[in-house]
Amino acid sequence: MKKINPFWQHGQRLLNNLSASVHSIPLQIRRLGGGLVIVSVITLSLWTDNPDSFEISQQSQLLDLPSENTTNQAPTIDHGISKPVDVWQQAIVKKGDSLALIFARLGIKPVQLHHIMKSGKSVRELQNIKPGQEINIRANKNGEVLELLHIISPTRSFSVKREDNTFKTQLVEREPEIRIRHAHGSIESSLFLAAQKAGIEDAMIMNLISIFGWDIDFALDIRQKDSFTVLYEDIFIEGEKVRTGNIVAAEFTNQGKKYRAVRYANAQGHTDYYDENGRSMRKAFLRTPVSYSRISSRFGKRHHPVLNRLKLHKGVDYAASRGTPVKATGSGKIVYRGWKGGYGKTIVIRHAGKYSTLYAHMSGYQRGLRNGTRVKQGQTIGYVGSTGRATGPHLHYEFRVNGAHRNPLRVRLPDANPIHRKYKQDFIEKSNGFFAQLDAISNSMVALNN
Predict the structure, then answer these.
(1) Which of 39, 198, 232, 377 could be 183's S-S partner, Cβ–Cβ 3.0 to 4.6 Å?
(2) Does 270 share its domain with 317?
């Protein structure tokens, strides 16, 4: 076993003593070394195989010194109490937060918040803080708030600044830079995989589905080689992208048929998507009442699985997991809500004019709905179940015109209101450029494929 040289141990103790002594060197001298001091000591190596000999070597060690401010000041003692200093402090608004809780977290006295909130009506903006938003506060050593900045969004902020004994407020709006981008995809296995390959976010694909969802059943109609082109906004602030904006125009080719849409806002601020002729992409009815489902039974004659006989199936059955939300396919008034024989828990909605829809076998209803309640298109009215004569969880959906049953998958859905004629020329002028861009992209894709 090797023995430790006692001279080496002595040298190590010397090194430790020197390290402690360095901290007692006057501040001005230590600054000459830029916060580091090189200490050289003589240390002795371990015994070699020859116990009568040892090797002497010189080593240098850098010792970290505590950082100092540019002025000499007495050391402070941390008593576990957060004290504000004349620097910015940041807090991210949490669920259930208030300004009082945020001030407490940052160690700022409540009286400061009281002074700010008493400074005028404009500070009421601070009562509307939401989770995820940013609050920045600058206070001096006496705990007085000098400035508060509420980051509402990448383009909006609200500031409060102390001027003498009062506070001045300002709502700051930053003008974003909007850049139009485009993406194109061709479907090989799924729409979402094609979108990912094209660099499109999932949220944008959901928007694309909502635009064309009145004409295309994205659960049943999508085929291989279907394609899409999207023109969309990228939002920049001071050269930095902050988010993806709206789809401004899009094209979807489904089973060889081309659908196009452009986003248009009229002078009154109403915004929607329209085709090249100014007809709304929105229909009076959604094509399907349940998302992410499959058809388990179509409209027409079939062998009833419970009655065990041939019977006319007057609607379409959508198989889905129990509890899947059921949406009203059109706006209207509930004229029946309750148990309806073999239909189980059922809702019937009467829509404007000659149309009505029925939703059956539900497990339950959305709260607050009763006979006479008005509902909007896309509003959840109940949940998929298997009540009544049903072999498993699904939604039975019927579409009626003047009381007569129609095939929900084939019936021609009435259009929503087109662009008003007084906005038609403005629409044509603003949309032509976007449709021209879609043409150019489509032509370039054809050229690449050829």
Answers:
(1) 198
(2) no
| pTM recorded for the entire structure | 0.59
pLDDT score recorded for residue 14: 47
181, pLDDT greater than 70: yes
Q: State the average pLDDT for the chain.
A: 79
Question: In this structure, what CATH number is given to the domain that contains residue 112?
Answer: 3.10.450.350
Q: Is 205 left (phi over 0), alpha (psi -120 to 50) or beta?
A: alpha
275/333 same-domain check = no
The tokens describing 333, both together, are 């008034």
Cβ atoms of 328 and 375 closer than 8 Å: yes
Residue 121: CB atoms within 10 A of its CB come to 7
Same domain, 341 and 398: yes
Lowest mean pLDDT among 241-250, 352-361, 406-415: 406-415
Any idea what the CATH number is for the domain that residue 339 is in? 2.70.70.10
Examine residue 79 and state whether it is found in any structural domain, yes or no: no
3-state DSSP call for residue 438?
helix
**Domain range for 52:** 6-64
For the residues of 41-75, what is the DSSP string, one character each? Answer: EEEEPPP-SSTT---EEEEEEEEE-----SS--PP
| Strand residues in 71-176 grouped as ranges (E) | 87-92, 134-139, 145-153, 156-163, 166-173
Query: What pLDDT digit, counting tens, does each position of 92-101 carry?
Result: 999 888 888 9
Q: Are 301 and 399 contained in the same domain?
A: yes
Tally of domains in the chain: 4
Q: What angle do CA 65, 70, 75 make, to 5 degrees?
A: 60
Q: What is the pLDDT of residues 188-207, one digit of tens each?
A: 988 999 999 999 998 999 99
Sheet holding 227-237, edge to edge: 177-186, 227-237, 240-254, 257-265, 271-274
Q: Indicate whether 289 belongs to any domain.
A: no
What span, in angstroms and rounded, lies between the C-alpha atoms of 122 and 16? 61
Per-residue confidence band for 30, with pLDDT thresholds at 50, 70 and 90: very low
> Are the C-beta atoms of residues 176 and 155 closer than 8 Å to each other?
yes
